[in-house]
Amino acid sequence: MMIYEGHGKARILHTSNTKEQIMPLTKREIIDRLYEKAGLTRKECTSVMESTLDIIKDELGKGNTVKISGFGKWNVLNKKARKGRNPQNGKAITISARKVVTFKPSKVLNTELNTE
Length: 116
Prior knowledge:
Helix content: 25-40%
CATH superfamily of the largest domain: IHF-like DNA-binding proteins
Shape: extended
Strand order of the largest sheet: 1-2-3
Number of strands: 8
Oligomer: single chain
């Protein structure tokens, strides 16, 4: 285990035999960064964060696409029911129809992520 220093907070870097993994950025940490950058109170930053996520969830719940220019796009896909196998016992099962959310990063975000 190693420590990664990022934005004033230590984040634990887990290691395994095959790869290293940084702990995911949490909603609380995003709120803290908003507080540092936006000049709002923590309560206001929390409200902005919660409201933004509620809007995104509501739109996705309606089956709408959410697009943030320069960042990416979330889509809701309807998966049909299909046949599958239980990996524990090998028996045939039916996997029920469901909705899944996909995210596609924008070209701008992809470019930023892939420049070194």
